[in-house]
Amino acid sequence: MNYNWNWGIFFQPNPMGTGTYLDMLLSGLVLTLKTAALAWIIALITGSLVGVMRTLPSKGANWFGFAYVEFFRNMPLLVQLFLWFFVLPELLPKGAGTWLKQLPNAPFWTAAIGVGFFMSARVAVQLQAGIGSLPRGQKMAATALGLTTAQGYRYVLLPMAFRIILPPLTSEFLNTIKNTAVAITIGLLELTGQARSMQEFSFQVFEAFTAATILYLLVNAVVVTAMRFLERWVAIPGYITGK
Amino acid sequence: MIEISHVNKWYTPSFQVLTDCTTSVTKGEVVVVCGPSGSGKSTLIKCVNALEPFQSGDISVDGTKVNDPKTNLPKLRSRVGMVFQHFELFPHLKIIDNLCLAQQKVLGRSSDKAVTKGMMLLDRVGLKEQAQKFPAQLSGGQQQRVAIARALAMDPIVMLFDEPTSALDPEMVSEVLDVMVDLAHEGMTMMVVTHEMGFARKVANRVIFMDRGEIVEDAAKDDFFGKPRSDRAQKFLSKILSH
């Protein structure tokens, strides 16, 4: 292989005049973190609502939850981002479409919301399974004490269901971070995007993607460790997964 | 206190679980419901606080119809204590918090008042020292006593017991029955689904025998144990009393 290794490339100035190539990658990392954070908040909130709807006695709520989940999980993420970014503005009334297209940071908002909705379908299914794994008597006990359905979920079912699904939720959080890389296709200069630009400007493809790989690994290692601590913190003494 | 009249319940159009059940429990009365498994006794008791719906007939508790859509069910249920076969304590809450949750969220009691009441009841069932533990750290018998205390914390006008000792190790049955006997002696109105014939002999005023969804026998305790009228009840009694 005829390749000129140059690990010093990171400390050379980038052609944009925004510092070194390393600065370029780090700015991509920051954007990755911001996109993933917003996407995860959206995924958790909407996913929880939809997950709860799928367990309610109401037929209407079940149907909505079912349709929501199947819509968002049965389409490739890439296609969804294209839909939100390229197709949606054309379908809206002209004024609204133009406003959307001219929105500053449109790729960022589209990526965060698109990845957020995509992941929310997965969070919903996890939460539904978590609630379903609780004994039926728990809901009955809450009801028999006079708690309303909302109170039963808030104080009895959800605190247990979320504890049970913490390990798979960790995976979903990691997937959210990794999935933001798809946003490169709608022009978001996140970590993968910046690695790609670095390669194009400097021709140092291996160095660029090695650095990106390491940064992704580091971020996810931090998330995994943090989630472990969270699991231990909320563990219930004496309970199966407890201390 | 409890009026059950001509209650019918079907799980599917061809599967009837309750057939024309009519009985009543007056204030201060202890009524034991027994019968083979699958005879509908648990279902009947769950109909009393509307944990299970039924298709025809009427049930009223303290003059309030439970099958009236206008009835405020959470309010009614908060006045009807219920104890389940599998305890159904809330595993993520400390024992004292299990007793305080509904007092605060349903009855609107202050935290201080709820804790005082809770500690008084824990003392009464002999578990004051366990207040800061979690349910999984207690034995089955202790958990069931906590469940009784949790129901009593709501100042119920009637207590329903759904096979309260069936899930317990034999040596723990008596500690739970002792609490129930005390309750009965204090004049609590109780409807108890159980196979504990010793308990029935000791404190019951009446015994109801159910088979295949029907109330076969509804008699004063002495009549029931002395000379049950139905063949089915005689056979049942001879089987469970022969050892």
| SSE string of chain B | EEEHEEHEHHHEHEHEEHH
Main pleated sheet of chain A = none
Spatial extent as radius of gyration of chain B: 18 Å
Task: Supply the number of helical segments of chain B.
Answer: 9
CATH architecture of the domain at 1-79 and 191-242 in chain B: 3-Layer(aba) Sandwich
Ends of chain B: how far apart? 36 Å
Secondary-structure element pattern of chain A, one letter each = HHHHHHHHHH
Number of strands of chain A: 0
Q: What is the fold named in CATH at topology level of the domain at 1-79 and 191-242 in chain B?
A: Rossmann fold
Large-scale geometry of chain A: flat
Counting copies of identical and different chains, the oligomeric state is heterodimer
Quickly count the domains of chain A.
Answer: 1
List the uncertain runs of chain A: none
- Counting helices, strands and paired strands, the structural category of chain B is alpha/beta
Report the CATH C-level class of the domain at 1-79 and 191-242 in chain B.
Alpha Beta
Strand arrangement, largest sheet of chain B? Answer: 6-7-8-3-9-10
Write a brief structural summary.
The complex is a heterodimer of chains A (243) and B (243). Chain A is mostly helical.
Question: How would you describe this protein?
Answer:
The complex is a heterodimer of chains A (243) and B (243). Chain A has 243 residues and is mostly helical. Chain A is 74% helix and 0% strand. Chain A has one domain (20-234): MetI-like fold (Orthogonal Bundle). Chain A has helices spanning 21-53, 59-73, 77-91, 94-101, 106-132, 136-144, 149-164, 166-179, 191-202, 205-234. The relative contact order of chain A is 0.15. The model of chain A has no long low-confidence stretch (mean pLDDT 93). Chain B is of the alpha/beta class. Chain B has a domain at 1-79 and 191-242: Rossmann fold (3-Layer(aba) Sandwich), CATH 3.40.50. Chain B has nine helices and ten strands. In chain B, the strands form two sheets. Chain B has a six-stranded mixed sheet, sandwiched between helices. A four-stranded antiparallel sheet of chain B has the order 2-1-4-5, with helices on one face. Chain B is globular and about 55 Å long. The A-B interface holds A 135, 137-138, 140-148, 151, 155-156, 159-160, 163, 236-240, 242 and B 46, 49, 51, 74-75, 77-80, 82, 84-86, 88-92, 101-102, 105-107, 133-137, 150-151, 154.
